[in-house]
Every structure is written in structure tokens, then in C-alpha cells.
Amino acid sequence: MNSRATPDSEATFTGNTFDKYGSTNPVVRRLMSGFLRDLDACITMAAPTSILDIGCGEGILTHEWAGRLPNGGRIVGIDLDDPLLQAHWEQRRAPNLEYRVMNGEKLEFADNEFDIATAIEVFEHVSDPTRVLSEMARCANCWLLVSVPREPLWRITNVARGAYWSELGNTPGHRNHWSSRSFRVMLSNYGEVVKLRHPFPWVMALVRLRD
Questions:
Q1: Which residues partner with 116 through β-bridges?
Q2: In the predicted model, is pLDDT for residue 17 greater than 90?
Q3: Selection from 68, 72, 75, 67 nearest residue 50 by Cα
Q4: Residue 7 — very low, low, confident or very high, per pLDDT cuts 50/70/90?
Q5: How far apart are CA 144 and CA 180, in angstroms?
Q6: Predicted structure pTM score
Q7: Looking at the chain, which runs of residues are DSSP E strands?
Q8: Average pLDDT, stretch 8-26?
Q9: Distance in angstroms (rounded) separating the CA atoms of residues 42 and 201
Q10: Which is more confidently placed, 5 or 115?
Q11: CA–CA gap between residue 85 and residue 172 (Å, rounded)
Q12: Once rounded to an integer, what is the mean pLDDT over residues 100-126?
């Protein structure tokens, strides 16, 4: 999730500043093809009947997943309060899909309410990743699915294309950084990392939660 600052805080980011999902740039399309292929493989393996999507942004993935859940299974997407996001939500509706304004550090759901909790391109932005992960693990009864930029590859790629030189390639709004190894180590605190994928330049993990 490449993000923009919300109207009330320059330090809080929501949504996509660059439409990587709808881009016509052939390089971006190729990168996103690999990313979405690995994401689809993880969702297929988890086979959820209900999904909680943290930091759902404009709801692009959330809406797509709503159409794939068996028997109209429940899906809820949450993000911070941003009128621009909510306008997108109105355009991406489904009978089994609900959007809520909510902070991932304090989820207003019961324990084990969903099969899987997802956070796709979110954790690089949040102030307390472990708190959000703990809340996700509390609300999910089977799985976590999380992706982040893979470092230092992400920043090296930015520098190579002439972006964010003054920030040493760090994308605005990225507070946290993980290598593939450090990402696995963090997630292993919550369960077994059964899939670790590396669609360039990201790292993605499917975690089977402990009982």
C-alpha cells in the first residue's frame, strides 16, 4: 500500500498514492502480476470462509475476495477515517462485504471471529506492528496473511529508479522495515509460517496460528 497522509495528520497514511493495481505501465503490471499470483496462492491454501482485511485502503482486494468466498462468507475491511477511501468503498459493494472505520491496534471484534486476518502492504506504515499483529491473531481462528516491502531490496530499487534519494530510497510513510528473515522471525511469534513468498520487491507470509 503506497499511501497518502490523511487530512488530519501528516504522519498517518491511508490508501494508494499510485494506482499499482490499475497501472498500464508494463513494468508495474509485470510486478503486480507476480504479487497477485503469490497472494492468490496463499488465499487458495488458506481457503477461508470469512476474512478480516486490515488496512483495506480503497477496497480493491477486499471487494475481489468478497466474490470468491464460498456461500457468501463474511468479509470486513477496515481502515482509518478518510473520506476519499469511503468514496471508493461506496463503489465496491457486495452483499457479504462490510467496511468499517477502525484502528488496527484496537479491533472491535470478538476472539476467533474470522478464519483469516490479512494486512496487505500495511505494516510498514503502522506505529506498533506487534500490537496490530496481536489483535489480528486474537480475531482470527486459523490464519494470518501479511505482506510488506522487502528490505533493503525495496529501497535499493527506489534509488536505482531515481526515487526518494534524499530519503535513501525510503518511500514516504514507511516507518518500519523488514528483511525476509526478520519478517519470518516476527511472524513466528504467532504461529507457523507455512508459506513465505518473495514476489519482487515484496515479502509475503501465510501463518497458521497456534491453537
A1: 51, 143
A2: no
A3: 75
A4: very low
A5: 16
A6: 0.87
A7: 4-6, 9-14, 51-54, 75-79, 97-101, 114-120, 140-149, 191-197, 202-209
A8: 54
A9: 17
A10: 115
A11: 19
A12: 97
